[in-house]
Amino acid sequence: MIGERLSHFLILEPLGAGGMGVVYRAHDETLEREVAIKVLPAGALADESARKQFRKEARALSKLNHLNIAMIFELGSERGVDFLVLELVRGGTLSDQIVQGPIPEAEIARLGEQLANGLAAAHDAGILHRDIKPGNLGLTADGNLKILDFGLAKLSRAAGDRSITQTASLPEGAVGTLPYMPPEQIRGGPVNARSDLYAAGAVLYEMACGRRAFPQASAAGVIEAVLNQRPTAPREIAPRVSMDLERIILRCLEKDPARRYAAAANLASDLKQLALPTQQRRFSKQARMRHKAAVTAGVSVVLIAALASIGLNAGGLRDRIFGAAVPAVRSLAVLPLTNLSRDPNQDYFADGMTDELISRLAQVSALRVVSGTSSMHYKRSSKPLREIANELKVGMIVEGSVRSAGSQVRITARLVDAPRDRPLWSESFERTLTNVLALQSEVAQALVKRIAVQLTPQERDRIAAVPNVDPEAHKEYLRGRFDYNRFAEGQFQSAIDHFNRAIEIDPGYAAPYAGLADAYCALSSQVIPANEAMPQARAAAAKALEIDPGLAAAHVSRAYVLGFYDFNWKASEEEFRRAIALNSNEVTAHQFYAQLLIVNGRTDEAAKEIGKARDLDPLSPFIATMQLWPGLYGHHYDEVIRRARELTASDPKNSNNHLTLGLALMMKRQYPQALASLRKSYELEPRPLALAWIGCALARAGRRQESLHTLAELRDLSRRVYVQPYTMAVVFANLGETDSAFAWLDRGLDQRSEEMIEAKVGTGMDPLRGDPRFQRLLRRMSL
After folding, report:
1. What is the pTM for the complete model shown?
2. pLDDT, tens digit, for every residue of 638-659?
3. Which CATH architecture has domain 5-284?
4. pLDDT digit string (tens) for 525-576?
């Protein structure tokens, strides 16, 4: 029917099909708008009586006019084709969202309240839906819910079509979609408003758990379960679900209609309360009536116990009376915001909004905010919040969702006292894309206010700061950060391209310059020579700080260049300290500052800085290995071997753990074991430096020919990837080829090769330390 006309409607494209026919997108040529056309199957209205009944029902449905109900505009018939003209809902359906997994509770509460409000309006008009399911719940471009196909189950029965039941084993008159039908509807008995509320509960269950309440494979199995079995409690499947949401869902799914909510308005009220902090919730009268008699009988005893226990907070009674207090421990993690746009290509936006929220909160010195590197381990994770909090060693968790649709962006955030599984705060924020930075600021300020943490005036200003940025430039910046965070060679170049596009769009935006500096620092020496990458990193960091002198990340990049390229250790240390003063939660500042301290022989101070980095990024495998470095360079080899073996046992595919273990074993002259570890490291990640250390260990073990062979392998490798001159010098030095070693070291110094910084403390240079040329080399590096 593409390109055909029905009345004054031009058919444009098919949208879907079901038991009631095929749905098309169409253009209303009279009112100049787009609509949905549902074309009924041929012969659906077999006689005039059926057609008359169908029209009567359609006229009643067309009178429904509510924000959360998709309207019926017309009923038409032309050339033997019967069709309905419906409101076009552009954002897909709830089923598209559920297929990605469980939905955050704040979003369930928001959408569930809209569903209940729509049902309430229809029930007040005497109209039932009869087929509530995720596929019949549309989402608008701005993320609101609209109930689709209202009353069409009844129209379907009038038209004599029963395919909507998905089974032929139901009694006559039972119309609906089987997994969402209440027992009375399956039996073919009378239905009422509470039947729709059962289906709404089945939808809420699926939103919360990511699976149906009765997931049996066969129709017979579903029927038996709905009629005779209780659904598994949602919290057993998805431990993050709160007790309040579980109570709401299970009440909707009661077998006995009398035990369900009496009206959709009551369900809407409870879902609205669910979005409030625990201490502000006041659930419906019907929910409280169950315990009224017991409460009345025991009120005196409870009052006495309460007065006696408030001071001790026995059993959390004080919290229940006066509201949950924010945990005293000021540590939190922001879990990856769920992408509700149903488009995987929008993951960069959700991840970017997560990173930026972390960055704003991290500027509060009184908070310990876990790095996004560790938080991202829980993307799409179903682990209980209590378990996540324990792994990250935090007292609070922020979780939520982000939706970008058209020009609108909505963030829904929830603050949870994770160890006690207590919601502390929940709120939704919405802005246009042009004001997305203001949106981030609003969310961060609301969270800080709820946590009631003390801010310095400078911190308050930075959290509230809303730079005037072109929204397209911001999108390009987020895409760049998304690629950078993948930390792979090809992704660095892609990140640089996005950062440059952001700068072209908005040259006054500081963040993309900081991103460029990070990317060039990452490429330096590992992918391209430092003297090609570092000048570009220096220029980008300088431009970022010219625009925004308080940007901690740009100070880190500047410090990196000053130390590891310019060998200006004093200025580098001052920049690292400046970055930490601006943002004590900037994990890379602690990490690279520790590296500076190590290469200058200050291993005790370095251990403390790496400990701080570990606190902020507890799941980083690289930082876990880095904690061994102060011991390695401080010659505490037995302790390093013990801890490195623990790490290789727990993370056997981490090449850095095997490399560190191999170096410590080599220093203990345990050459067979050292070579086994070094070769395992090279097998897992064939880096030139790992191959050089194999050559070094072979040389020290007296296996000269095999060591020379590694030099040949390094030369061959250098034709495919960048091999740092220091790497070659390590092998020559340990083979006793002193002049060749110094030739390579001079070349490394000319290129400002990053591995040169290890010269003072690195074991690879031990054979050269008595040579006057080595002391001159260290002086040239200010070491």
Report:
1. 0.72
2. 999 999 999 999 999 999 999 9
3. Orthogonal Bundle (1.10)
4. 677 888 999 999 999 999 999 999 999 999 999 999 999 999 999 999 999 9
8 A C-beta contact, residue 324 and residue 277: yes
Q: Are 691 and 728 in contact (CB under 8 A)?
A: no
Q: Residue 275 and residue 426: Cα distance in Å, rounded?
A: 6
Residue 129 is given by DSSP the state -
Q: Point out the catalytic residue in the list 131, 161, 506, 617.
A: 131
Highest-confidence segment of 207-216, 332-341, 524-533: 207-216
Q: Rounded distance, CA 544 to CA 554, Å? A: 6
Nearest CA among 688, 691, 620, 627 for reference residue 654: 620
Buried b (16+ CB within 10 A) or exposed e, 43-60: ebbeeeeebebbbebbeb
- Domain locations along the chain: 5-284, 331-466
- Side chain identity, residue 196: D
- Verify whether residue 161 is a known catalytic residue: no
Compute the average pLDDT of residues 593-621: 95
In this structure, the number of other CB atoms found within 10 A of the CB of residue 600 comes to 19
Q: Give the residue with greater pLDDT, 16 vs 732.
A: 732
| Structure confidence at residue 59 (pLDDT) | 79
Residue 501: the pLDDT is: 96
Residue among 619, 615, 618, 597 at smallest CA distance from 606: 597
Q: How far apart are CA 86 and CA 78, in angstroms?
A: 17
Q: Long-range contacts of range 439-443, CB-CB < 8 Å, 24 or more positions apart?
A: 439/409, 439/411, 440/353, 440/356, 440/357, 440/360, 440/411, 441/360, 441/465, 441/466, 443/357, 443/411, 443/413
- 331-466, superfamily in CATH? TolB, N-terminal domain (3.40.50.10070)
